[in-house]
Design a protein that fits this description.
Length: 66
């Protein structure tokens, strides 16, 4: 028994590719089903906030004379 992928025969390469393909499809299917299944009633909407009057914030108690 040789444990090198380089010296493996054609059927072994095909088995590895088939297992990787099935695993990839399973992961993608699980991800799609988990994403679409959890969106029921949890839609997000953007809110528009309009600017009000300008506000000046300072940390000193000194009064400003103009």
């Amino acid at each position: 028994m040789n444990h090198s992928i380089y010296s493996a025969d054609r059927s072994t390469h095909l088995k590895v590719v088939a297992v990787a393909l099935v695993a990839g499809i399973a992961v993608a299917g699980f991800g799609i089903s988990a994403r679409s299944g959890s969106d029921e009633g949890l839609t997000q909407t953007a809110r528009v906030i309009k600017a009000g009057k300008p506000v000046v914030i300072t940390s000193s108690n000194a009064s400003l004379v103009r």
